[in-house]
Amino acid sequence: MKISDLSPVARKRLFLVLVVVVPIIILAITITAVSAAIQVPPSAATDAAQNALDVPMLALSSMLAVTLTSIAASYALARSGVAAISSLVEKPEGFFKAFLVVTLCEAIAIYGVVVAVLLWTRIPAI
Question: What's the CATH code, domain 56-126?
Answer without folding.
Answer: 1.20.20.10
